[in-house]
Structure prediction request, 327 residues.
Amino acid sequence: MAVTLGDIYKKAVEIGMKNDPRTKEDLAAYMKEKKEKLKKMNEAQKKLHADWGWNPYDDTRVIYGDLKRQVEVVYVGIDVETQELALISALNGKREREGKKPIDLALAHHPESHALEGLAGVMEDIQVATMKEAGIPPNLTSGSLKDRIGDVTKSVHSDNLHRAKSAAQLLDIPFFCAHTIADNVAYQVVSKIVQKLKPRKVKDVVEALGKIPHFKKAAEEYSEPISVQTGSLDSWAGKVFVEGYTGGTDGSAVILKYLSRNAQVGTTIAMHKSKAHRDEANKHHLNSIITNHMASDALGMQPLVDWLRSKKIEVVIGCGMIDAKMP
Ligand SMILES: [Fe+2]
Ligand SMILES: [Fe+2]
Prediction:
């Protein structure tokens, strides 16, 4: 049966909800709150945020394209911006000469356009949930996030937000960004592996993570697929916690103090770490393991890619995507 853009969008949200760090009750309460907010909006805002009614991820959105459009060939990239859309257009010329079907959907991980505008919207609720796992009370996480969420919102506000959307419109290439739905997957996969470990040193954690197929494959392309950015391979691991995988983007650096002191975490695992976070981690002798950003995001995108293939959709691997078996 033909698969439409709407089917792919629905499947992506389903994957995100299945892997969400919140309890079913917390997720339902969040969605109820959003629906109530939606009801009180004016008509223009209601139209902009119509997806709040069923999709709890503000950074996962169809940027361009009718939901009823049929999809047969998908280009998947961790980033899809104007240059990738121009590349798809050039590739389609080449595919036509080769007698192949054109790429009829650009699928990105990192959000663009109104999905990027929604990035701050996924931060608080999800980070409250992941930190609760470590034993940090919601008020501490939420309070420490306020400034950071404000910064993310303001920095996005001044951006040329719809640049890639306008390229997709002009080239008539449907475009979909699947952000937190994939980060939830990567968070669950890595958390489950970590929960089974009884590491003595940081190197024991790095060794276990190195067995994940996406990180193994990253080692063929990157000289250091897993790096230790504070502490060292020989540092005592202590309690290990996946801190920076889902919840939009980095939270506040101060949370690292709570992780160290309140939750007695010794080692965190993230996909990237800012200087402010590294400085704060160093203050508390907290070890920071950073898994390759592209490989970690690719791990999260993999279930959606596998599902597309199960529906006989051709997948063209592009920009940063690492295609490997799910662990
Ligand atoms: Fe991500
Ligand atoms: Fe990312």
